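Possible regression after last week's pipeline update?

I re-ran a chain I had predicted before the update to compare outputs. Posting the input and the new output here so someone can diff against the archived version. Not blocking, just want to make sure nothing changed silently.
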Amino acid sequence: PATRPPRDPGPVDPSRFACPRCQTDVQEDFYGPCHSCRDELRAAFAAEAHAVEVTAFEPAMHVTPNAVALKD
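New output (post-update):
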């Protein structure tokens, strides 16, 4: 049986790239929006949780009972 390499490569070295959102040259651990863009996105799309009232489940009758089922 062949041994597999470990899944965790260890610490990631930061790399330089242009932020895909604002095109600023940044040095981050992972590709994506820079720190300031992430903060702006969090502020823009922040929402408060609220309770949703759910009505009781009532099964629907999609078929009509036949004469055999109604017979006593």
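Follow-up from reviewer: compared with the archived run. DSSP finds two helices and two strands in the chain. Marking as no regression found.
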